[in-house]
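User: Predict the complex with nicotinamide-adenine-dinucleotide.
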Amino acid sequence: MGILDGKAAVVTGGGRGIGRGHCLALGANGASVIVNDLERAVAQEVVDEISAKGGKASVNTDDIGTRAGAKGLIGQCVSEFGGIHAIVNNAGNVRDRSFLKMTDEEFSDVLRVHAQGTFMCSQEAALRMKDQGSGGSIVNTISAAHFGNFGQTNYAASKGAIASMTYTWAMELARYGIRVNAISPRGSTRMSATYKGPDGKEVQLPFIDPNLNGHFVSFLCSDEADYISGQAFGSGGDWVALVNQPKYGTAMIKPGGWQLDEIREHFKAQLGGQLEPIGLMKKPYPFYDGIKPPKK
Ligand SMILES: NC(=O)c1ccc[n+]([C@@H]2O[C@H](COP(=O)([O-])OP(=O)(O)OC[C@H]3O[C@@H](n4cnc5c(N)ncnc54)[C@H](O)[C@@H]3O)[C@@H](O)[C@H]2O)c1
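Assistant: Here is the predicted structure with nicotinamide-adenine-dinucleotide placed in the model:
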């Protein structure tokens, strides 16, 4: 008996890296799994691994960043497994370049796969879950890069959009019994091998087993997690962490509102010393001495 017995799940980008780990864990815990990936060979290997252990899985090679691909993917899950109970939106790409050099294509390629793909696949899945009346679980994939990360305008924007969609869908879909959460996974993968520091140089990171995220994803897809929605988590490596969600902090309040002269007079004393740390590493606010144009 597994905690996902009788459930059908879809994992996008499940052919390698973190998505492969999700597929193996979901399959081992009893779910029937559609392993989606643009690359058939890697997806087939994952299906074979699941089948060899007595699980049920099938390959799908649709491009999840298109409406036709999203429809085909979810339709395949329903026609092969009789329904859909979980989708893990994991597929992703990177086209890193600093903001001033990033091309329109680099920006839209990444938004298309991450943000648009998550939107379209989740919508197709949620419509089926609603029709089935079964409820379900949507697990999206974000990254600490959405706090801001050098060279990742497109990727950070995608992950920020996915975080905001997660919170929004949790509110909209609860009435259908559908839960929506996000993970910010960790793992040594083809993608993590591309990470660079702020100096543009490659970073040597310690090995983290990408398969470790799959256990938490299985939990989120199970009925035991029926009280969890609208949450974002760090997962993988040695932790499961709650991600603090953005909210208003310290405020300066004045009945009737602030006029420009009053803002100029009070801002620095009231809020100017408490500006938020920025970026993925959350280093202390770095600009208290002012940001000036470069000297000619
Ligand atoms: N590796 C990390 O440490 C890390 C950290 C934070 C977030 N993430 C996120 O985790 C997810 C998986 O990352 P990974 O490191 O395993 O990456 P990866 O590059 O190793 O694997 C991604 C897979 O997605 C597939 N894919 C890409 N575009 C697709 C499309 N349009 N349709 C279908 N499949 C597509 C690729 O073929 C590939 O097999 C991504 O969303 C990534 O942003 C990873």
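The beta strands are 8-11, 32-36, 56-60, 86-88, 136-141, 178-184, 232-236, 239-242.
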